[in-house]
């Protein structure tokens, strides 16, 4: 695999390039640049003031001061999702110890949980487990037992509860994701079997709220993500195969059959725990990104930056074979243990052919952003999609004179739903 360090900045001197110049610069370079070439570099302030949008990134929030599992969850950032804090001085919160409730939990409990569930049935929100589009899955607690709730944010409606567990889980023990077609929710949590000490995957049907399938995990720290090309039938998952703690597998669901496994993900460690922080597919599903960071907590020194930045490594794998293709390494002034993942995770452009990261060099405290060209994989159809998405803004796609299934394909809908 090719290993590449993020290119150094030039002492923070980024010039006065405007948004239109960013577009012209990218269009000029993107045709001739090789995969993983640096297409654009700017300060974080420039990114926020227009460079990100000009480079066709709809997700432009790259930093968050929230603490993971307190203010944010691995799947939900209060800053990125635009969540507003509820005034804690309101009488609604006066009867409970405020230190036990997060900003995120307060918001959803106050605004989205029906009053009879909160006050009469004693349901409380612990965190957001996962979200996709307008659907949000909440971690709920009632009488010291964990359950999961479904919310439709567009209709502002509470849809129901599923997955009643025998005990109350801490937020750190849970991981969840909704399938690309919105029909299934896969949740990882500690087993509740008598005598059990490990973790399990439980797959639920969101519409019926019934358990579809479950499987015991070989390692408690396994991470997973749905393949965006499939409606709900395939996931990428780490450390899924017994005796393979440094592995990445493609797995069929709900049968849990292993399609293929790469037994060597990290070149320097035998286990992916605790360095592996997140796993995600590219928008078109042809690449898998495993994000690893150095361990250690620097929260007290973060503002003064009296410590070495964390090392971030993005390992890139083939979405069909799980074989490693590339590695990008860079530095970031953040806490790899408690910082919101947004502060060091990559984001992808609307066309899916560019990746942006926020990073620091060791000579200047300035945060800056670099945009890299991703390899274009797949058939001619996918290449045409990238070109179309680089030409037309997202809000105009549904207005194009094209068949519905083709419009859905341009919007990265799985199997052209």
From TrEMBL:
Superkingdom of the organism of origin: Eukaryota
Residue ranges of domain SOCS box in the record: 379-410
Membrane spanning residue stretches: none
InterPro entries (alphabetical): Quino_amine_DH_bsu, SOCS_box, SOCS_box-like_dom_sf
Gene Ontology biological process: intracellular signal transduction
Entry protein name: SOCS box domain-containing protein
């Amino acid at each position: 695999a090719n290993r590449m360090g993020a290119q150094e900045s030039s002492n923070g001197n980024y010039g006065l390039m405007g948004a239109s110049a960013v577009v012209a610069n990218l269009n000029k370079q993107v045709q001739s640049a090789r995969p993983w070439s640096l297409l654009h570099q700017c300060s974080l302030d420039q990114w926020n003031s227009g460079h990100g949008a000009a480079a066709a990134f709809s997700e432009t929030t790259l930093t968050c001061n929230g603490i993971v599992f307190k203010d944010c969850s691995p799947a939900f950032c209060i800053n990125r999702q635009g969540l507003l804090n509820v005034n804690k001085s309101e009488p609604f919160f006066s009867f409970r110890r405020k230190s036990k409730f997060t900003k995120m939990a307060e918001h959803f409990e106050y605004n989205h949980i029906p009053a009879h569930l909160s006050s009469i049935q004693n349901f409380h929100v612990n965190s957001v487990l996962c979200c996709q589009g307008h659907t949000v899955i909440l971690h709920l607690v009632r009488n010291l037992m964990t359950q999961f709730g479904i919310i439709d944010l567009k209709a502002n409606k509470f849809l129901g509860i599923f997955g009643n567990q025998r005990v109350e889980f801490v937020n750190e023990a849970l991981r969840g994701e909704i399938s690309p077609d919105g029909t299934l929710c896969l949740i990882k949590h500690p087993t509740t079997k008598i005598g059990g000490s490990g973790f399990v995957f439980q797959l639920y049907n969101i519409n019926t709220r019934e358990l579809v399938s479950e499987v015991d995990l070989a390692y408690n720290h396994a991470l997973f993500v749905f393949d965006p090309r499939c409606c709900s039938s395939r996931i990428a998952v780490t450390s899924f195969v017994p005796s393979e703690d440094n592995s990445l597998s493609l797995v069929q669901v709900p049968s849990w059959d292993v399609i293929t496994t790469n037994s060597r993900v990290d070149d320097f460690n035998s286990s992916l725990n605790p360095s592996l922080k997140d796993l995600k597919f590219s928008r078109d599903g042809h690449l898998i990104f495993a994000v690893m960071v150095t361990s250690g907590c620097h929260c007290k020194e973060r503002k003064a930056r009296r410590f070495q930045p964390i090392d971030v490594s993005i390992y890139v794998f083939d979405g069909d074979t799980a074989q490693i293709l590339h590695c990008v390494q860079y530095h970031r002034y953040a806490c790899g243990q408690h910082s919101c993942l947004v502060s060091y995770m990559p984001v992808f452009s609307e066309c899916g052919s560019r990746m942006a990261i926020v990073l620091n060099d060791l000579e200047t405290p300035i945060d800056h952003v670099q945009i890299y060209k991703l390899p274009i994989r797949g058939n001619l159809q996918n290449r045409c999609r990238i070109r179309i998405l680089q030409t037309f803004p997202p809000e105009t796609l549904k207005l194009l004179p094209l068949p519905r299934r083709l419009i859905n394909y341009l919007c990265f809908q799985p199997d052209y739903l």
